[in-house]
Amino acid sequence: MKFTWYGQSCFLIETSRNKKILLDPFNNSIGYPTFKGEADIITVSHHHFDHDFIDCVTNSPKVIDKPGDYKIDDITIKGIPSFHDNVHGAARGENTIFLFNIDGFNVCHLGDIGYVLSDLEVKSLGNVDVLMIPVGGNFTIDGAEAGQLCKKINSNIILPMHYKTTFTILPLEGAEKFIMSMKNAERLQSNVLTLDTKTNEKNQVKIFSIK
């Protein structure tokens, strides 16, 4: 399974059977190059311009933008309702957490989660192999809150997202606070991570590079 990070909260997941799942695609207004290509599935955590630009896809994929249980070919997807803020959606609305079972991996994309999940909400996620979590604050949880939540979820691999880089023009914090909180980040040399086998290690943070 291959993860490609395009910036913000947008990932392309490619399975061992050549299925493509695009998560939270953005439009061309935030500074990163917009994804262009085909996908079999698109998930949208919430309908803001930097998370729901499905017109970037050149074919006709299945779009999932609501909580619920889905099965497409050999991929199972569960959408869990949550909030974009810490006041039950009163400030920024709702957010959908997506859980995927892909190639035997349990993958979680938290979207624009705006609060630290309760113990009961964490339990509902089950065992997570790969966690995609926002760390940039302002619109979502910040780096310290993300570190707290990562330790509660206790996944194997963590892919931080939605933070300030040299590309984005949005008013976000960088990943430094999150890295300091976790203390074990590995900086990758590209925006691609390939996983063939699971690891027993916990909370391994992978920082992508976009060039």
From TrEMBL:
Protein's name according to its UniProt entry: Zn-dependent hydrolases of the metallo-beta-lactamase superfamily
Keyword Hydrolase tagged: yes
Organism: Clostridium acetobutylicum (strain ATCC 824 / DSM 792 / JCM 1419 / IAM 19013 / LMG 5710 / NBRC 13948 / NRRL B-527 / VKM B-1787 / 2291 / W)
Record keywords: Hydrolase
InterPro entries: RibonucZ/Hydroxyglut_hydro (IPR036866)
The keyword Hydrolase appears for this protein: yes
Superkingdom, taxonomy of origin: Bacteria
GO molecular function terms noted in the UniProt entry: hydrolase activity
Stretches of the chain forming a coiled coil according to its record: none
